[in-house]
Automatic annotation (TrEMBL):
Source organism (scientific name): Aureimonas flava
InterPro entries, sorted: AceGlu_kinase-like_sf (IPR036393), AcgluKinase_fam (IPR004662), ArgB (IPR037528), Asp/Glu/Uridylate_kinase (IPR001048), Glu/AcGlu_kinase (IPR001057), NAGK-C (IPR041727)
EC code: 2.7.2.8
Catalysis: reaction(s): N-acetyl-L-glutamate + ATP = N-acetyl-L-glutamyl 5-phosphate + ADP
Enzyme class (EC, first level): transferase
TM helices/strands, residue ranges: none
Residues the record lists as binding substrate: G65, G66, R87, N192
Name of the protein in question: Acetylglutamate kinase
């Protein structure tokens, strides 16, 4: 056997204790819009999810698609506006958000996983009464004046009810759920939910063993751009308050904190632009990214 074959075999053997630890456990993987787009990365991601399912682990994929929504809005001559990392969403925008997220992106990911020989099923919060949302009640503190301001984000929602019936059913089946962060309200409206927030709510409801957030940066970075390997909840809050964490990283880190509060055992923000990031994180010693702990 060559050295390189032996190394590969060692790597496979190294996965065994991790596979045993995660057997029958649920892992929620949030696949961010920035981590998509590259064909090889997409295929590697799909293969990782397929391999988890084949290993007796229960993966649930929640995806985003912020940049893809932005591109479609631009095509239609609609400007994107964000406040506190969330897209200000009027009636026209929410229709496009649903079309892009629950339509094209969702089916693209389903097709990628199915091409690896698995059975993925595309869903959104509307399916099986899985998630109900309410209009988001968001406030932000202006970093200069320190004055708190209530945001009106239109049809941006927060998940308020999660019913795990359908997810439990799928966990016992061959199916891998791939979920778009769109949900109905009890008021009959359709809400656009930040994909991180949505993934955190799902992870909390199913008491996931791990929730991974795949993005386009190595994890949470400090003021000098260096990766922070581990963050306590209190440290994370301080970095949001002092502006080190900004933009889309705000809902991501807030979600991590909420997921931990809801009993999710481990939450990691990592670079989805690294090939096989999911396998490296879960099944090898080479855990990457920022681990957020209580
Ligand atoms: N302290 C920070 N560390 C890392 N990224 C940060 C930080 N503050 C802001 N960001 C921004 O957050 C982005 C990740 O959030 P987002 O764009 O919503 O990603 P995704 O689409 O993957 O959910 C990064 O690309 C970076 O521009
Ligand atoms: C309310 C809100 O901001 N919703 C997001 C939903 C998609 C998302 O979160 O995608 P990423 O994970 O790729 O950022 C949006 O409209 O862009």
């Amino acid at each position: 056997m060559t050295d390189s074959a032996a190394m590969q075999a060692n790597l496979l053997a190294e996965a065994l204790p991790f596979m045993q630890a995660y057997e029958n456990k649920t892992v929620v993987v949030k696949y961010g819009g920035h981590a998509m787009g590259d064909q090889a990365l997409g295929r590697a991601f799909a293969r990782d999810i397929a391999l988890l399912k084949q290993s007796g682990i229960n993966p649930i994929v929640v995806h985003g698609g912020g940049p893809q929504i932005g591109a479609m809005l631009t095509k239609m001559g609609i400007e994107s506006r964000f406040e506190g990392g969330l897209r200000v969403t009027d009636q026209r925008t929410v229709e496009i958000v649903e079309m892009v997220l629950a339509g094209s992106i969702n089916k693209e990911i389903v097709a990628l996983i199915n091409a690896e020989g698995e059975w993925a099923i595309g869903l959104c919060g509307k399916d099986g009464n899985m998630v109900f949302a309410e209009k988001a009640k968001k406030t932000i503190v202006d970093p200069d004046s320190r004055i708190e301001r209530v945001l009106d984000l239109g049809y941006v929602g927060e998940p308020v009810e999660v019913d795990r019936t359908l997810l439990d059913l799928l966990a016992r089946s061959e199916m891998i759920p791939v979920i778009a962060p769109v949900a109905p309200g009890r008021d009959g409206a359709t809400y656009n939910i930040n994909a991180d927030t949505f993934a955190g709510a799902i992870a909390g409801a199913v008491q996931a063993a791990r929730c991974l957030f795949l993005t386009d940066v190595p994890g949470v970075l400090d003021r000098d751009g260096q990766l922070i390997k581990e963050l306590s909840v209190a440290q994370a809050r301080a970095l949001i308050a002092d502006g080190t964490i900004s933009g889309g990283m705000i809902p991501k880190v807030e979600t991590c904190i909420e997921a931990i509060d809801r009993g999710v055992q481990g939450v990691v923000i990592l670079n989805g632009k690294v090939l096989h990031a999911v396998l490296l994180e879960l099944l090898t010693e080479h855990g990457a990214g920022t681990l957020i702990v209580p």
